[in-house]
Design goal:
binds guanosine-5'-diphosphate, Rossmann fold, 13 strands
Amino acid sequence: MKKNSKIYIAGHHGLVGSAILRKLPELGYENVVYRTHHELDLTRQKEVEQFFDQEKPEYVFLAAAKVGGIMANSRYPAEFIYNNLAIQTNIIHASYLNRVKKLLFLGSSCIYPRLCPQPIKEDYFLSGSLEPTNESYAIAKIAGVKMCQSYNRQYDTRYISVMPTNLYGPNDNFDLETSHVLAAFIRKFHEAGVKGLKEVEVWGTGVPRREFLYVDDMADACLYLMDHYDGIKIVNVGTGKDISIRELAGIVARVTGFNGDFRFDPARPDGTPQKLLDVSLLHDLGWKEKTGLEEGIRKAYQWYVKHIVTTQISEF
Ligand code: GDP
């Protein structure tokens, strides 16, 4: 990308999109376009085609998606499959019609089979059955990867796909029923501290293992790969290190200053037992994360207190 290239971020309000939007001007990219959901409904093909025709972006970060944690995915599978298929299909095809120079598609580590060997190599893609709690979302993301690869083969486009591990940070979703675990913990432990509670409920057994990447690092990786990667193969983006949900609870408790106990609720789903990405390809390409887990959780917690807690107080 040149500093004056026109860059479109689809999903600039979301966790990853907003991090890319913060990062681009920091690195001197000033010609960035984006639209709110109100201005442009990405599930409507005509609107998307008109937008591309008008704006003619040269580079596209496809970070728009309907996302959610384990409960949201199990409860609203139709919304997850419909919205994601529609959004990505419209954007990828409009990019082709308007000769976008390069597109980066954000996938997810849940595209990999539920029980594949750990750490998960890119080669395990489509080698087994998926985790049922987020199958609809995963199928949509798999279709997105295949669509990018198919367009590259038939139309000679340059559409790359990256598979982030679990992300967290500013602009995360802190709704307890639909969020991912780290945002849920930040909120639960903070509120428990404020209310002086002795226990915090942790879903499942605490045994599953997950890997977490701070979203500003994810944005950095996206910009890096946009400039340094042109392969057909998907690229994992993570740290290559995982921890159990119980250990994660311990770190969030420390960061938020909560001194009580955890109460595990095995009636809630555990989901996939382990999700740890093999990041050798990413490391070979020359990228590595900068933010340690505890440091990232501290930053995310500061953001939560400043933007969510303070706003809630001022709303009363
Ligand atoms: P997943 O990575 O797709 O399974 O999605 P999540 O981030 O929602 O959940 C990760 C793990 O954290 C699962 O084993 C959940 O059961 C566990 N977990 C524990 N407490 C919570 C919570 O309060 N919210 C969420 N979303 N997950 C929790």
